[in-house]
Amino acid sequence: FTISILRSVSFMSDVLCPRRYSVEDEPSNLDEMPLMMSEDGFENDESDYQTLPRARVNQRRRGLGWFLLGGWKVLCGSCCDCLAHVCRRKKELKARTVWLGCPEKCEEKYPKNAIKNQKYNIFTFVPGVSRIIIYSYFFLFFKFCFICEVCVCVSVPQGFVLVVTMVREAVDEVRRYRRDKEMNSQLYSKLTVRGKTQVKSSDIQVGDLIIVDKVILVSCSCFIRTDQLDGETDWKLKVAVICTQRLPAVGDLFSISAYVYAQRPQLDIHSFEGNFTREDTDPQVIESLSIENTLWASTVVASGTVIGVVIYTGKETRSVLNTSNAKNKVGLLDLELNRLTKALFLAQVVLSIVMVAVQGFVGPWFRNLFRFVVLFSYIIPISLRVNLDMGKSAYGWMIMKDENIPGTVVRTSTIPEELGRLVYLLTDKTGTLTQNEMVFKRLHLGTVSYGTDTMDEIQNHIVQSYAQVTSQPSNGSASGSTPSRKTQTPGPKVRKSVSSRIHEAVKAIALCHNVTPVYESHAIVNGETESAEADQDFSDDNRTYQASSPDEVELVRWTQSVGLTLVNRDLTSLQLRTPSGQMLSFHILQIFPFTSESKRMGIIVREESTGDIAFYMKGADVAMASIVQYNDWLEEECGNMAREGLRTLVVAKKSLSEEQYQDFENRYNQAKLSIHDRGLKVTAVVESLEREMELLCLTGVEDQLQADVRPTLELLRNAGIKIWMLTGDKLETATCIAKSSHLVSRTQDIHIFKPISSRGEAHLELNAFRRKHDCALVISGDSLEVCLRYYEHEFVELACQCPAVVCCRCSPTQKAQIVTLLKQHTANRTCAIGDGGNDVSMIQAADCGIGIEGKEGKQASLAADFSITQFKHIGRLLMVHGRNSYKRSAALGQFVMHRGMIISTMQAVFSSVFYFASVPLYQGFLMVGYATMYTMFPVFSLVLDQDVKPEMALLYPELYKDLTKGRSLSFKTFLIWVLVSVYQGGILMYSALVLFEAEFVHVVAISFTALILTELLMVALTIRTWHWLMVVAEFFSLGCYLASLAFLNEYFGIGRVSLGAFLDLSFITTWPFLWKVSAITLVSCLPLYIIKYLKRKFSPPSYSKLSS
């Protein structure tokens, strides 16, 4: 839910994302001429727009062929969507007036504040699951067979398949329901007239006053973390409404008549417009509300006691508006089996028509046609769906039981094979690749550099410097303190000592920041916002630092470690403590915050003891290089630190006289009062001060990576997976992490896409980018939006050719949009991995979503298909489990189809021998037993097969590349299995008729026995690594069949049981029966084994080379 801060406020609110394509179009001549990918189309001259031809869009012509090949599914889906849209009219979002603590005064009914990740409800479950069946490969077969069926024995397995699918979906739905119920049952403190009460999250309403207690010494502000919203773990400052902050007690919020007017719910998480009005005063008090007064849902209060009024709830919060609805994901393997099953269904119909045509279409031929369709229905075995679903469950169980990736959870049991087909991996940065824990690594002064092992030298210099200041207070210049205001005229430069330069550098780092020290309180606040300063512990152990950047916090911590400690700060002053315990007070005159455009921040302070005024500035090297005085080492050292993966900051200083500052302040205040071009005028005034600044030092901070990130990324690259990093962090930070994690290798060039805002700029920048080869791309979210608006296809085509892509300042919606574009333009399988709430849309949009349970909560983990605890686990998850799942399902699916095709071939041979009569060869019991007891366990044991050991798959990730080509399941392998089935079915049936011509009454027992033995041998021929359960399954199935021959002999005769056709038990124990059945089985299997041996010897697959 979203709240507006009333008193020292901070809590949760909603989430938003930038609007899509709201910028007005460029002139028509650019709109009509999209960018082309030819060499002639890429010229730097903007006049070339006039010669660029229109991009061609290939649209399928819709006709009968389109309808038969899948258009019917599109039409059915469109009809369902239209019906759902009519039934669920979307409520128009409007601005609202919210009265403080009075939900009953709300003019409209707002949505319930409940999280819902479920796909169905009690009314939509059956239709929803049925829609999955419609899109599956069994739909055409079911539809036709239900029309043709006469006997019940065929419809029962079909109903069983539907039941299995519903049970699987129901189990997943119950798990989602339980997770949602746990989240919706969390308790929050609600402020009422009678005091505090506990209320469930789902019971919070618009207008409620919610309290979040984190008892920390703060004034009228608080800090929040938005990592679940935009991926940034930086703490952001939020400010309370001034009017309510002046109330003497919290309970007085109910004694005033006030309301909040808020804009309608929208996607943008970076803006908010509203007003706070208090009516019971004369005149009325009206305060403007902005983003600084709000707390969106999915944010965390880092410090402060928050009392806020709820503005948005449930579906209208920013986080939900930026989250896509959960959809049913269908694996690529299922789609491929769908196409193969369509071919089998076509073959079934054609074969039935041929049988009737050979008869001459005499008599009731259409009845015979339906009979043949039912007889050949085993070409598409019903057990295929059951075996695949059971196999998916087995893969999930194996993943969760793997001791090498503890804590892994499979939340979606329908797509484990997708882990073995991935081409693009889109990953978040903060919390996924990095731990977001900064460590100070390097301080460079130009002539000397200090690392982690020499920090004690800096500490000694600081101690000596302030010891001299204490003993000789009049000798300020000798101690390296700020020069006097009266000595501003240029004079001969005096080379400062190392101790003096270190002192100046550390002092600048300790002053130039936006860090606030916070002290935990041991008092308990019960409803009243009272000052607890008397109970505060101001010791170093009780102090924590808050800032909008973890870099700044680490820099301040480092200055504390070397002796200069920040002990207090407010809006106008700050205090430092020296190693000797002396307090240095500074008055903050001006602060120039960091922006992505300026890439730097500055502060002007006056030291109270001396009255000296100093202007300190720090920022990126690209921004500071032109500001500082000439030097010959900055660029080189920045490059060296960047190659080490360090985040660099250049620190500079400029001393100001009182006259200089007063002149600047007058011009600065005048610029801030301007109505037109205020931003440009303010920037110009500040830049007038940023000239010839003294370069003090260069700092290097390392963002610690997750464990084994570098080898894991290298493993994925060697496996042929292209990695894109999508982050909401700054461009410089994203680029630095890309280098330190080796996402971008040291030898690769990086093309940083310049900020663009128009079509012309996008065209020129794409031209420049296209001419670079084998370089990584770094682009911001704003530039990406412009490119996708005008040159979507061209940009994606260029980006896909890069070895790595980094997208910074991405909103959650943009992340999901990038995933969707890759799926549409490349037709490859995508995987998204993240750990924050801002990654949920990306995870749900990808073909396979992986969530990490980390510091940013479980929101991404709960919404993902697979949940892991560390990024390094993704290597084994893909290389081992993904690879095995795909190869096993491919083998299992084709073998089950082979099992159906071979018995259908035998039926076709039998019918053709007996004048194309539509008489079944085997009775219903044998057909059911053939697909279950006699062959199910050996065939299903293929889910335990593996071609190489897990260690070998991790050692040679190149094996993964073959999977993306789909060679384990293709039309080529399918045709091979068809030929094998036709050969074996023909051999089994013709050999049974020829060798047992005198014992024709026993042809069922003869052919069926040979069929069972052939299937068991084919399973053994297919297995590459034996497991003890496979051996048990083989002998168990053989024992079940032998028991059936002995005790169910009435089903092995020709004709109906009522006619007395029984199997003679003495016949199956004779020597002729045994050797003839063995010969038939040998003829059907031995040639295949010889062919497989020769192929393995002269053209072995890659995995067999490693196995040997």
TrEMBL record:
It catalyses: ATP + H2O + phospholipidSide 1 = ADP + phosphate + phospholipidSide 2. Keywords: ATP-binding, Golgi apparatus, Lipid transport, Magnesium, Membrane, Metal-binding, Nucleotide-binding, Translocase, Transmembrane, Transmembrane helix, Transport. Residues 862-1100 form the P-type ATPase C-terminal domain. It is found in: Golgi apparatus, trans-Golgi network membrane; Membrane. GO terms for cellular component: endosome; plasma membrane; trans-Golgi network. Mg(2+) binds at residues 428, 430, 835, 839. PANTHER family: PHOSPHOLIPID-TRANSPORTING ATPASE IIB-RELATED, PROBABLE PHOSPHOLIPID-TRANSPORTING ATPASE. This is Phospholipid-transporting ATPase. It comes from Cyclopterus lumpus.
